[in-house]
Amino acid sequence: MQSPPFLPHFLQLHQADHRALAQEAATGLLAPAASVSPKFLYGVLGSRLFDAITELDEYYPTRTEAALLSQHGAAIRQAVLQATGLAPALLDLGAGNCAKAARLFPALAPRQYVAVDISVEFLRESLTQLQRLHPALPMTGLGLDFSARLALPAGLLDGPALVFYPGSSIGNFSPDEALRLLTEARAVAAGGALLIGVDLVKPVPVLEAAYDDALGVTAAFNLNLLRNLNQLLGSDFNPRQWQHLAVFNAAESRIEMHLQARQALQVAWPGVLRPFAAGERLHTENSYKWTPGGFAALLRDAGFGQVQHWTDDAGWFAVFLAAG
């Protein structure tokens, strides 16, 4: 007897506290070396600008990762199923439009798909469309801020899972933060495995161009943070007074994105007047770059006993599978 088609289920665990977010942003802005969390880069326009970034010639990670998953698909499938068993549950971290995980469906035939992002409303349209294409696959959209902690509701996954974290987003975490997240991913996998995309160390001009493209899309993405802060704080940032910078910090092995004041200026929000000197920077994002050996060691520190990876010919990007 054929099973009836499923409808996606949605759970919103993360509740935005606008007062707390505003306080967090203000605290960072008032620090001697001003900085804000990269989460303030996003929002409806920020998410659309980031999608545009992934289409740029200079931004190699998205297309390189996709090529790796395609080129080594058979080997990756065999290794995943050996670790998880047939028809694993598929947990997609930072799912976005769900397209990357959906490409794994034919190879893995998952028994369950859970798409995780900070807002189920962001997931709702994509997951509903995907459900129409796969009516017999149970799907759940989970609104969760896993950058703070990756913990799932009891019983959400019904056995060993493949945790999928593509796109090299692990680079937004410091090494200590990445270790915490990877340790939690191992616990959530429940004896399954982790499939993760990792951006590697490479020539500095290549790295910096990927975060400072000729068309200025990444600059618009970074400057849009000021618009988001204005909405959150009631501040009066003028994006025309700032310029986008992307620099590689070799000592920390990370790309840093900053906004630099073009002139001496002041930014006001209720009860606050924050001066910025000409050339003073607001630090907006880090993206750590790893060596294959360094990231494999991090996975082992997180408790994974079996680690393998695949890289492109240039050694610019890697896809890691960790189990055990």
Description:
With 324 residues, this protein is of the alpha/beta class. The chain folds into two domains: 126 residues, no CATH class; 178 residues, Rossmann fold. The chain has eleven helices and 13 strands. The strands form three sheets. It has an eight-stranded mixed β-sheet, with helices on both faces. Strands 7-8-11 form a three-stranded antiparallel β-sheet. Strand 3, helix 7 and strand 4 form a beta-alpha-beta unit. Helix 2 packs antiparallel against helix 10. The longest helix has 17 residues. The radius of gyration is 20 Å and the shape is globular. It starts with 8 loop residues before the first strand and ends with a strand.
Structural class: alpha/beta
Task: Give the spatial strand order of the biggest sheet.
Answer: 1-4-3-2-5-6-13-12
The largest β sheet comes out as:
8 strands, mixed
Radius of gyration: 20 Å
Beta strand count: 13
- SSE order: EHHHHEHHEHEEHEHHEEEEEHEE
How would the global form be characterised?
Answer: globular
Total separate domains: 2
Specify the CATH architecture of the largest domain. 3-Layer(aba) Sandwich
The level of helicity is 25-40%
The top-level CATH class of the largest domain is Alpha Beta
> Could you tell me how far the N terminus lies from the C terminus, measured between alpha carbons in angstroms?
37 Å
Total helical elements = 11
